[in-house]
Design a protein that fits this description.
The complex is a heterodimer. Chain A is mainly alpha-helical. Chain A has a domain of 225 residues. Chain A is globular. In chain A, strand 1 and strand 2 form a beta hairpin. Chain B is 65% helix and 7% strand. Chain B has 30 helices and eleven strands. In chain B, the strands form five sheets. A three-stranded antiparallel β-sheet of chain B has the order 5-6-7. In chain B, a hairpin with a 2-residue loop joins strand 1 and strand 2. The termini of chain B are far apart. Classes of the chains: A mainly alpha, B mainly alpha. The interface between A and B is large, with 62 and 57 residues.
């Protein structure tokens, strides 16, 4: 299949499916569900096919397509995958499929729900596949709207509040991103590489940055704007308070998507846009980024410990876990005198750790939210102090849940471990102090996860309402949980085969390009300084 | 060894040990899923688990023999010729070899009257050749290789490796053997789980009823299998990162097994405590890993491939061939050079010699040791181990005495080349303090398993102490012997508990020796072994007449005496273990007497007590045989000789005034010199402890209650376990919860409030905007409209419909137009 057809089909198949839903009778809910599930499954299959076409040994962008969209402004319909986006595309289609399977718990306004769900998937896949800044921005906004309605219509009691909070937060980020985008767009016209044209092409913009043709001032400002925009999505302290509310109010499958995929967009944005286009800005802010990441880890873990709502606890654990992503990307140590990168391999390891953490968290947090959802569907409450003894009532479910929670805890052999430990190991090279603080997170994480397991699953008997509804986990739910566990184990045991292998070459390219870009500006800067001195 | 043979043997060993390692994992998977879907009354899971681990034992045994063969040793060598291994590894020529044997015989004959002069030949060798020449080369018969790669970044990579030397195969054999015994024992011990409705008497439901649940026989065995997998993986690991992986995995198995009775709050709390305490240690472990990774760029222990391909391992980088750390500078400026394979300085990419600040090396060592502190329940993280006794007794025997908790000692021994003298000193003090604290608390506890738990803590302290004072052999020797006798004693206590229908309080036992003779006398073997009692007569080749614990404890005391002689400021490191030896003998005999002798204190318990079935007694007998005889020959016996093959190079010759503190570590020779003296003192201490215990608890010449009343406050202090739990609770647990509350409070009160005020500000502005809109903008528009409207309304009057009036208007207008035209048009 042609790359253009394949990539477009991956992005727009869910949209076509959403339209197809209107061929069904309004009452044919079951068939519409099956149809939507089939669409997500086919999309997942297509991404697997894409993986087959993908050459893992290559670090460069592959399967690129570019068609002029708005030629006057050099906006292109430009798509492609590399080792950074490929795993996230797979994660998105997988989590979407599983979340669709989990959507049987949604009972009202099915058609609207499924439509929005599928549109959301289009938005997410578009974000990960687009290589044009404008297109990226469009997909970014496309994904926002369905999410707003999915939380606002199918959510819990405070759904309007949560939906608006989510929407406004993200929109604020988008505005900052828009400003930065225009800055770079107009800045690119001054570069010698574009022939006086203003462009939105992310790869080209990266090349300009590599050649050092964005001034350091532009880079710093643009980076900060972009970073805040993406940090809201990540979310990093202090931009995280939308997350607990959104998660608590969103229905289970939407929580899975939110934690499993949407948070990764923040990390992806930083690694795909902010860092390669503004290497100078990234280096300028590196210490702040790592410090913010470390703070998020500790803060999120502490906050998780104090929660009494099960979903809120998992939401805060996401804040804590995404801190590692921020750290891993930013552990870029340079030699102050020469501007060269110190121990580039350690930085690559940190970045690979950050990427792996995103994938691992995509699996484990989606799993955790799903596991909470299974309980919520039965007893309709989430108060941690009113559980207990679930292990007695639902032993198989509890066993699966414990495995998934251990994946979140970062147990070796499961997906959470590799990311966390790689990030922490690579941090000492950057800053021993921050590395030590980040490492202390392992104690807190163990604390809140084990305490949760104890309060919910262990103990002699269930203490909350509707004990008679605690029926064993059904086949559909088992399938979702087992799939997640299988991926968690595979990624934990064979991290190289299932993840690192395809990321490493791209990460190497990225770090090299950034180092070059920084070094060029650094040398130019030092020349200016030496010239100004007599 | 030629590369061909190296590869061939290495592959054989790899597959044997990998089989032994992975079989329990396969067993776990089948047991956990199969067990869930099959009935509760099937013993199949147990048989499968036993089959897996027993096959593992056979594989390990074959591996042990293969390894001995590859290392040019055969069983009789190790058995007969003291230091044969050392001699063989040093390639002493055949002629001298024979001479030494003669020497050995002479010396042994001549000194039969002494206590236990066993390693004399070693002296003569050392005297002949000097110290440096006699460092053992542990890498010579070590086999390493890679299973597969976890990650690769440029020139650095993280892999799953194996590292097989004498210590590895010995640990494998020991672990699989003890695990097999314990699995068998557990078939009997856990048999009351073979039911659809198990009544748990320790869980009280509201309404005064007991808790009922289906039995979990299969789950127990699947967890045991998972544990065996993790433990063997830890031993097989070829790099420190891999050790960390399995370190955490044994931790989680321990969590699952401690919390096996999930419905008991005490059990799940104990499990959490164990895991979190271990994580505290692992935090340190991680710091150590970070330093090593950043500075060395590798995690491998050593690269032993004879054709010198591949990168150097950590041990080879940090120490020269002679086993010294090459340093330069003083204080914080001191740096250590890294060594290359050719015995020169390792060069970095920039052509400069690669160095690491010495203090970072110290911190790295302390970090790794922090991991050992957590896992081996050393001061100050010892408090989790007694609580871990909430798990079923076979678990306590396997996980919390013989294997997992000893993993810390194993790692300290394995990682010994990376430890600088400063780190060793810390290890020694931590070990000594732990040994003392554990022993003193064991004096007052009355739960039979708790006594054993505190004794485990204390004995682990001994091992750490030995390693810290440079007695590498003594520490690992004690690790092996302790594994046998402590697992034996735990199983005996399990047998007692099983026989007394889950009664654990010794105050309710007494007089059980007639009811359970096998348990009683096998336990006696363990008690004598741990106390270090012996008959001071030396036999040729066999050493003193004693059980295993005597030899190893003796070696530890000798090492510490030697160390404190060489470093007089640290003489506490000798007196503490000596006193502790006496206390140990006292509390172990106290336990034995209280349980099996005296008058029955609770007739209900006594009347229903019975000896355990053969599936439980068989393992007791097997273990007691090894507890008694595994260390036969003492430090020149086969076990010690086997261990010596893995001894790091720099241990044998001792270290002179090394490091920042100028510590001197004793050489084999120096340790041996004070052996008889130390042995006598230790024996005396043990005898005293035994006699006092006999007088107190068997003869009842003194009433323990009186002594207790006399030292009321001390007793209370010990009973509250030195108040560690209270201190930790107020220092850490509660503050953490407070900070957690602050964090959520900050989210709600600061961040969200800020957002909400932003929102209400926006709403306020919007409302103001609306008012402005209504009052100003709209008003203006309205005014316009109104004016227009009014104008229209006024003009409406003109529209009368009368023709004449219109004509008049037209005429008037025409006139006006003309006037205007005439006035304004330019002419």
């Amino acid at each position: 299949m042609e790359p253009l057809t394949l990539l477009s089909l991956i992005i727009f198949l869910p949209t076509i499916g959403a339209l197809g839903l209107y061929a069904f009778d309004k009452k044919a809910e079951e068939s519409m569900r099956m149809f939507a599930l089939a669409i997500t499954a086919v999309t997942f299959g297509l991404t697997l096919f894409l993986l087959g076409q993908f050459d893992m040994a290559q670090g460069a962008m592959q399967l690129q397509v570019s068609i002029p969209w708005v030629p006057t402004w050099n906006i292109n319909y430009q798509l492609g995958v590399d080792g950074i986006s490929m795993p996230l595309v797979l994660l998105t289609s997988l989590v979407s499929m599983l979340a669709m399977m989990a959507s049987w718990s949604i009972k009202e306004k099915i058609r609207g729900y499924l439509t929005l769900f599928l549109l959301l998937e289009t938005g997410m896949l578009g974000v990960f596949l687009s290589l044009d800044f404008f297109l990226f921005y469009v997909f970014w906004e496309v994904m926002l709207l369905p999410m707003y309605f999915l939380i606002g219509v199918w959510g819990g009691p405070r759904r309007e509040y949560a939906a608006i909070k989510f929407f406004l937060y993200t929109l604020a980020g988008s505005v900052l991103m828009l400003i930065a985008m225009l800055m770079l767009y107009f800045g690119s016209g001054e570069s010698s590489l574009t022939g006086g044209q203003n462009i939105f092409d992310l790869l080209k913009l990266g090349e300009i940055a590599k050649a050092g043709e964005f001034s350091s001032g532009t880079q710093v400002v643009a980076f900060i704007l972009l970073f805040i925009g993406f940090a809201i999505k990540l979310p990093a302290f202090p931009f995280h308070t939308w997350l607990p509310d959104a998660h608590v109010e969103a229905p289970t499958p939407i929580s899975m998507i939110l934690a499993g995929v949407l948070l990764k967009m923040g990390g992806y944005g930083i690694i795909r846009i902010a860092m390669p286009i503004c290497p100078y800005g990234a280096q300028y802010a590196a210490y702040a980024l790592v410090a913010l990441g470390v703070f998020s880890i500790i803060y999120g873990a502490f906050a998780a410990m104090a929660q009494t709502d099960f979903k809120r606890l998992v939401a805060y654990s996401s804040v804590s876990h995404m801190g590692y992503v921020l750290i891993g990307m930013a552990v870029w140590k340079i030699n102050e005198a020469t501007g060269t990168t110190v121990n580039p391999n350690h930085w690559q390891m940190g970045m690979a750790g950050a990427m792996f953490q995103m994938l691992g968290h995509g699996i484990s947090s989606a799993g955790m939210f799903f596991m909470v959802g299974v309980l919520y569907d039965r007893v309709h409450h989430r108060d941690l102090n009113k559980f207990g003894g679930i292990m007695q009532k639902m032993p198989f479910y509890s066993g699966l849940a414990v495995v998934i929670f251990f994946a979140g805890l970062g147990l070796p052999g499961l997906c959470g471990f590799i990311g966390e430990v790689f990030v922490v190991l690579s941090t000492w090279n950057f800053s021993p102090l921050l590395a030590v603080i980040a490492a202390s997170g392992v104690i807190l994480t163990a604390g809140y996860i084990l305490w949760t397991i104890q309060r919910v699953y262990l103990g002699p008997e269930y203490k909350g309402p509707h004990p008679e509804d605690l029926t064993p986990i059904n086949g559909r739910e088992t399938a979702i949980a087992l799939t997640l566990i299988v991926f968690a184990v595979l990624m934990g045991v064979f991290p190289y085969t299932f993840g690192l292998q395809m990321m490493t070459p791209s990460i190497e390219n990225l770090t090299q390009s950034m180092s070059t870009g920084y070094e060029t500006l650094h040398q130019a800067g030092s020349e200016i300084i030496s010239m100004s001195q007599p | 060894m030629s590369p061909d043979i190296y590869i061939e043997t290495g592959t054989t060993l790899k597959w044997l040990l990998t089989t032994a390692w992975l079989l329990p994992l396969a067993g776990f998977l089948i047991e956990v899923f199969g067990g869930y879907w099959s009935g509760r009354k099937s013993r199949a899971a147990a048989f499968l688990a036993v089959g897996c681990i027993a096959t593992g034992f056979v594989c390990s045994l074959i591996a042990l023999l293969t390894w001995l063969d590859a290392a040019d040793l055969n069983v009789s060598d190790i058995w007969q010729n003291p230091r044969a291994v050392a001699a063989a590894t040093h390639e002493v020529s055949e002629a001298t070899h024979v001479d030494h044997e003669h020497d050995a015989d002479h010396a042994a004959d001549a000194e039969h009257h002494g206590d236990h002069e066993h390693a004399v030949p070693a002296h003569s060798e050392e005297e002949h050749h000097g110290h440096a020449a006699h460092g053992n080369n542990p890498l010579k018969f070590a086999f390493n290789g890679t299973f597969y790669t976890l990650a690769k970044f440029g020139r650095i990579q993280i892999t799953l490796d194996y590292y097989i030397d004498g210590l590895t195969v010995l640990m494998f054999t020991m672990v699989t053997f003890i695990a097999t015994c314990i699995h068998l024992f557990a078939i009997g011990y856990m048999s009351d789980e073979l039911t659809e409705s198990y009544e748990d008497h320790q869980v009280h439901l509201p309404g005064g009823k007991h808790f009922h649940r289906p039995g979990r026989f299969y789950r127990f065995f699947s967890f045991l299998s998972l544990f065996c997998f993790a433990m063997l993986g830890l031993v097989l690991a070829g790099n420190i990162f891999q050790v960390f992986i399995f370190w955490e995995l044994v931790g989680v198995c321990s969590y699952l097994l401690i919390g096996f009775y999930v419905e008991r709050k005490s059990a799940s709390t104990a499990a959490n405590k164990a895991f979190i305490m271990n994580r505290v240690g692992d935090f340190g472990f991680l710091i150590g890993l970070m330093i090593l990774w950043t500075w060395f760029g590798t995690f491998q222990f050593a690269n032993t491939n004879p054709d010198q391909t591949g990168e150097q391992g950590l041990f080879q980088m940090v120490r020269t061939d002679a086993g010294a750390i090459e340093t330069e500078g003083e204080g914080l400026n001191r740096v250590a050079y890294m060594q290359s394979a050719t015995g020169e300085h390792l060069l970095g990419n920039d052509g400069q010699a690669r160095r690491i600040p010495y203090w970072l090396l110290v911190v790295a060592g302390l970090g790794i040791f922090a991991g050992c502190v957590g896992k081996s329940a050393q001061f100050p993280l010892q408090t989790w181990l007694p609580d871990a006794m909430e798990g079923p007794t076979p678990v306590s025997a396997l996980v919390h005495s013989a294997t997992m908790v000893a993993a810390g000692v194993y790692l300290a021994g394995r990682f010994f080349p990376m430890f600088t003298p400063e780190v060793l000193l810390v290890i020694a003090y931590v070990g000594a303090i732990t040994a003392f604290i554990g022993a003193t608390i064991a004096l007052v506890v009355t739960d039979i398993k708790q006594v054993l738990a505190y004794s485990t803590i204390s004995q682990l302290g001994y091992m750490m102490l030995a390693i810290g004072v440079g007695g590498w052999l003594a520490g690992l020797f004690h690790l092996i012997t302790h594994a046998f006798f402590k697992s034996l004693m735990f199983l005996c206590s399990g047998s007692v508990i099983h026989g007394c229908h889950h009664e654990q309080e010794m105050t309710k036992m007494g007089g059980l020796y007639k009811k359970m003779p096998i348990t009683c006398w096998t336990m006696w073997i363990g008690v004598v072994a741990i106390s270090g009692l012996a008959i001071p007569i030396t036999l040729p080749y066999l050493g003193a007449i004693s059980f295993s614990g005597f030899h190893s404890k003796d070696a530890i005391i000798a090492s510490s005496l030697s160390f404190s002689t060489l470093n007089p400021t640290h003489s506490l490191l000798f007196f503490i273990p000596l006193i502790t030896a006496g206390i140990t003998a006292f509390y172990m005999h106290r336990m034995w007497f209280m349980t099996f002798f005296g008058k029955p204190k609770d007739h209900h318990v006594h009347d229903h007590a019975h000896e355990s079935p053969w599936v439980m007694c068989g393992p007791l007998l097997a273990l007691s045989f090894f507890a008694a005889f595994c260390a036969v020959g003492g430090e020149s016996g086969p076990l010690a000789n086997l261990l010596l093959t893995s001894e790091p190079t720099h241990v044998a010759g001792g270290v002179q005034a090394a490091g920042e503190l100028g510590l001197t570590l004793p050489s084999h020779h120096e340790i041996h010199e004070c052996h008889s003296q130390a042995g006598m003192m230790a024996l005396l201490a043990a005898l005293m402890g035994t006699v006092v215990a006999y007088l107190f608890y068997c003869k009842q010449a003194v009433d323990p209650a009186l002594v207790k009343a006399r030292f009321e406050s001390a007793h209370r202090f010990l009973k509250s376990k030195w108040q560690f739990d209270e201190i930790y609770d107020s220092m850490f647990t509660r503050p953490v919860h407070v900070v957690a509350k602050w964090c959520t409070g900050f989210d709600r009160e600061a961040l969200d409030r800020f957002l909400h005020s932003c929102a209400s500000l926006a709403v306020g502005i919007a409302q103001w905007d609306r008012k402005f809109d209504e009052a100003v903008v709209d008003r203006i528009v309205n005014v316009f409209g109104e004016v227009t409207y009014a104008a229209g309304r006024t003009l409406k009057g003109v529209q009368t419909g009368r023709l004449r009036q219109y004509v008049m208007f037209i005429a008037a207008a025409v006139v006006c137009l003309f006037v205007v035209l005439f006035l304004f048009l330019p002419r």
